Amino acid sequence: MDKAYVKHHIEDGVGWIEFFHPAHNSLPADILAELATTITHFGKKKDVKVIVLKSGGDRTFCAGASFNELVAIENEEMGKAFFLGFANVINAMRKCPKLIIGRLQGKAVGGGVGLAAATDYCMATRFAQIKLSELHVGIGPFVVGPAVERKLGISGMSQIAIDANAFYTAEWAQQKGLYAKIFDSTEELDEAVKTFVKQLCHYNVEAMKELKAMFWSGTEHWDELLSERAAISGRLVLSEFTKQTLKRFKT
Question: At residue 138, what are phi and psi to the nearest 5 degrees?
Fold first, then answer.
C-alpha cells in the first residue's frame, strides 16, 4: 500500500473506520479532517450501534503528526489550523453518541496516543508500545494532553510527556488504564474485537449512549480548551529548535 486513505463501512451494526498512511500511519491534515467527518457521520446513523477505529498495515498503529506538514508550517495561523485537525478528531470522538472501540496492532506515537486515549474502550497487541514524543521535537502534547490525562491520570501522562524519547510497553499502558486488554498477536486481537463488538450490538443503544455521556461528563469545555492548546502548539512549531529537529525527520 502506498496511498493514504480513510475507509469506512457498516457491517451488522458495527461502523468500521480504518485510516492508513505509508509513513507509518502518520496523520496529515486531510486524513485528520476525513476522520473527524466520518466519526461524526457514523454517530448520526441509526444503523450504527458501535464504532471500531483501526489503522491499516500490520505494524505501527499511528506515528502521530505528519513531519512533512509540520515543516511546511510558516506562521502561527497555519500552525494552529494544523493542530486543530487533531482537536477536531478528539472532539468528534468525545461528542459521538456511539461507543468507540480502539484496535491497536502496533506502536502509537504522539497524536496516535491521543487517538487511543479518546476511544471509549481500547484493545491492543503486546507490540502496541506508546510514546509522547512532542517534547523531543520542541513542542509538547498540548492538544492530546487532556485525552491522555483522562485515561492515564496526571502522573502517567506527565511521565511519558517528560520522558519524550522513550517507548512505554503495552503492559504499562494497560496498568495505567489506556488499554483494556492486550493480546499476543494481531490475529487474536482481531478475533477479540469482532467478538466484543458483536456482543455490544446486542445491548440497549440508548443505555450505551447515556453511559458514554456519563464517561465524558466534565469535558464540555474541550472545544475551547483544545483550540487554545492548538494555538500553543502552532506557535511552538515555528521555533528554530523545532524547525531544525523536524528537518532531520522529514521524509
Answer: 95, 10
Backbone angles phi, psi at 5, to 5 degrees: -160, 165
| Confidence (pLDDT) at 250 | 59
Asked if the structure places residue 247 within a domain, the reply is no
How many H-runs (helices) and E-runs (strands) does the chain carry?
Answer: 10, 10
- Per-residue pLDDT at 1: 63
Asked, for residue 164, whether it belongs to a domain, the answer is yes
Domain residue limits at 175: 5-186
What is the pLDDT at residue 12?
97
Q: What is the CATH number of the domain that holds 72?
A: 3.90.226.10
The answer to whether position 239 is within a domain reads no
Cβ atoms of 221 and 76 within 8 Å: the answer is no
CA distances from 30 to 37, 77, 89, 194, 250 (A): 11, 17, 12, 28, 18
Whether 250 maps to a domain, the answer reads no
Q: Identify the pLDDT of residue 246.
A: 80
Q: What stretches in the chain show pLDDT beneath 70?
A: 1, 249-251
With helix as H, strand as E and coil as C, how does 13-73 read?
CEEEEEEECCCCCEECHHHHHHHHHHHHHHHHCCCCCEEEEEECCCCCCECEECHHHHHHC
Number of domains in the chain: 1
Q: State the DSSP H helix or E strand holding residue 158, giving kind and residue range, or none if neither.
A: helix 145-162
d(CA 27, CA 9): 20
pLDDT at 178: 98
